[in-house]
Amino acid sequence: MVKTVFTDELNKTYELYEKKFGKTSLQNTEPLVDPLNPNPEADRLAIQRLKQAISSGVPLPRNVPPEGIIY
């Protein structure tokens, strides 16, 4: 696993987000980072977005699959 300078902070921020909004709150949300292509700038933006959601109390939007689609 390749680590960026923000990896530890990003993991802590994910934990804070899940603590505030629930363990499965990041499921069905748009991916914030690409784990296969680490990018410090993407990590920094993801941290900002998660912290904004935590401080405002408004969770990130969730993608709801269309009815009748079976995955």
Topology:
Blueprint: H1 7-21, H2 40-56
Helix pairs in contact: 1-2
Note down, in words, how this protein is organized:
This protein is an all-alpha fold. It has one domain (5-56). Helices cover 45% and strands 0% of the residues. The protein has helices spanning 7-21, 40-56. Helix 1 (7-21) runs parallel beside helix 2 (40-56). The chain is globular. The termini are far apart.
Question: What is the element string, with H for helices and E for strands?
Answer: HH
Q: Percentage of helical residues?
A: 40-55%
Give the number of DSSP strands.
0
Oligomer: single chain
Distance between the termini: 29 Å
Instruction: Give the radius of gyration.
Output: 13 Å
The shape, in one word, is globular
Mean pLDDT metric: 90
Low-confidence stretches: none
| Derived structural class | mainly alpha
Largest sheet: none
Short description:
With 71 residues, the protein is an all-alpha fold. 45% of the residues lie in helices and 0% in strands. Helix 1 packs parallel to helix 2.
Keywords:
2 helices; single chain; 71 residues; 45% helix; mainly alpha
